[in-house]
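Key result, reporting period 2: structure in, sequence out.
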């Protein structure tokens, strides 16, 4: 189950990298009209990356403390992910309003493809469950 968690974590990371690159390419780092705070985006990314490294070490070393550490790191990652999703959904639903006098800058996260967001979230949930089950020793 530890390898399955690693695979789902890597797939989740690919979707996250794609969205991070899209967000940066469309001016998200500059703040501007983005509804996703820069510290939240990079905190989510950093904790997920650190957790992934801990998980890889766990897969190699098979030390239970590392599995629980990775799971502990996933909890704030998931909370930050839900926070970003909650801020993204209304933006995705609303139509881009263009003021009468000119164009309004589109938030960078408006460019996230829905299938990537959904896939990232789905694989993230599966990853959290697999990591927890592995840490509990279920499926060994």
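The corresponding designed sequence is given below.
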């Amino acid at each position: 189950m530890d390898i399955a968690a690693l695979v789902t974590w890597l797939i989740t990371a690919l979707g996250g990298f794609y969205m991070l690159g899209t967000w940066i390419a469309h001016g998200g780092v500059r703040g501007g009209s983005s509804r996703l705070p820069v510290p939240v985006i990079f905190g989510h990314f950093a904790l997920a990356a650190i957790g992934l490294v801990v998980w890889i070490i766990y897969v190699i070393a098979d030390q239970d403390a590392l599995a629980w550490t990775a799971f502990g790191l996933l909890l704030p990652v998931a909370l930050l992910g839900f926070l970003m999703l909650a801020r993204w959904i209304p933006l995705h639903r609303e139509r881009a309003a263009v003021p009468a006098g000119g164009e309004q800058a589109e938030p960078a996260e408006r460019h996230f493809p829905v299938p990537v967001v959904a896939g990232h979230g789905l694989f993230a949930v599966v990853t959290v469950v697999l990591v927890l089950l592995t840490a509990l020793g279920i499926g060994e």
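The chain has four helices and no strands. Helices lie at 2-25, 38-61, 64-93, 114-135. This case is discussed further under Risks and Mitigation.
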